[in-house]
Design a protein that fits this description.
It contains 15 helices and twelve strands. With 354 residues, the protein is α/β, with parallel strands linked by helices.
């Protein structure tokens, strides 16, 4: 899973990226500190995996991971190549989900590209560039297929997509064929997006969420998370044992990484399953509704190609039984074929031929 951090210059993208990844990306008080994208791969916090570790005591514990991409700041005209627009837009197309970071704090020493802080205006300006960039993609597609008689059905659909974009509406699909068309276009406006308000730590601690309320009123049904990127970064530098204490002192509950990943999973319709192989217990990410053959392919292509069966039990089962042997003895381990649909929290032992 790749999550791209987007927004205007000087809103705290690299600070948040460093808090999430510990990658040490450069931060400075001028636009385009991030000229090229910064990439960091982070293990996903997973209480179930921690519990499996305490029960099974494997020599190796491997969490699922998420890739965060800190993308160069966008300016007005990015869809036409202004600033670092072309590079910015190309990097967005590579990710699965967007964190749209918006500045909601005052700091006279930190430059704002418009001279003053207005979160709703900034969100609308960035979104406009995404819509304009998608219109160019759609127009090119229309030009390409306009004269092809075999593409009449797609042409009708893509023109409807264009009409939606012109109205500032996110494109939708009605069936599997339209879904395939839309996925081929790789439009920016179809990517799931979480709006993250970068707030002053005092406002956040005191529950002063007026800016967040204004964003929700303006944008409607969107996911908005309030954070203080500066505080999250400073906390990330502390030892784990010290973080909880400091959070209580600052009045900031929960870590942004946990919430961001949870919301991203929900938006992308993802689940996690687990494997126990030898001395390794490992977590994997999978699209909800996927069959066990797809899970096997994630683990190893040979497992999918030479699949015989899968032995499956739930996380809850092993917590109750405290060993895989007891799970077997109590008859809680099921034998499933290749059409079994994987459930969130499944522990899967794949049997395959040689």
């Amino acid at each position: 899973m790749q999550i791209g951090i987007i927004g205007y210059p000087n809103v705290g993208k690299s600070t948040l990226f460093n808090a999430l990844t510990g990658a040490g990306a450069p931060v400075a008080n001028y636009p385009f500190t991030t000229v090229d994208k910064n990439v960091g791969i982070v293990p996903i916090p997973d209480r179930r995996l921690e519990k499996l570790n305490s029960i099974l005591r494997p020599e190796k514990l491997t969490p699922a991971t998420v890739k965060f991409v800190d993308i160069a700041g966008l300016v007005k005209g990015a869809s036409k190549g202004e600033g670092l627009g072309n590079r910015f837009l190309a990097h967005i197309r590579e990710v699965d989900c967007l964190l749209h970071l918006v500045r909601a704090f005052e700091d006279p020493e930190l430059i704002h590209v418009h001279g003053r802080v207005e979160p709703v205006r900034d969100i609308e300006a960035v979104n406009l560039e995404l819509f304009l960039a998608d219109l160019e993609v759609v127009d090119r597609r229309i030009d390409k297929i306009r004269k092809k008689t075999e593409a009449k059905e797609e042409l009708f659909f893509v023109r409807n997509v264009r009409n939606s974009l012109e109205r500032g509406e996110h494109p939708i699909f009605k069936n599997d064929k339209e879904r395939r068309y839309l996925s081929e276009y790789n439009l920016l406006t179809t990517k799931p997006c979480i709006y993250v308000l970068n707030m002053d730590e005092e406002d956040l601690a005191e529950g002063n969420l007026e800016a967040m309320q204004k964003v929700k009123e303006s944008l409607g049904e969107v996911k908005v998370l309030p954070i203080s990127a500066k505080s999250e970064y400073e906390l990330s530098l502390l030892e784990t044992s010290e973080r909880a204490l400091m959070r209580r002192e600052l009045g900031i509950q929960g870590f942004a990484l946990d919430t961001i990943i949870e919301e991203s999973y929900n938006m992308l319709n993802l689940i996690r399953f687990y494997t126990i192989k030898g001395e390794e217990t490992r977590a994997w990410t999978l699209l909800r509704g996927s069959k066990v053959l797809e899970a096997a392919h994630k683990v190893h292509t040979d497992m999918a190609e030479k699949f015989i069966k899968a032995e499956v039990f739930s996380f809850e089962d092993i917590v109750k039984c405290e060993s895989t042997q007891t799970v077997r003895e109590k008859g809680l381990m099921r034998v499933e074929g290749k059409d079994y649909v994987v459930e969130d929290g499944d522990i899967i032992l794949i049997r395959f031929g040689v």
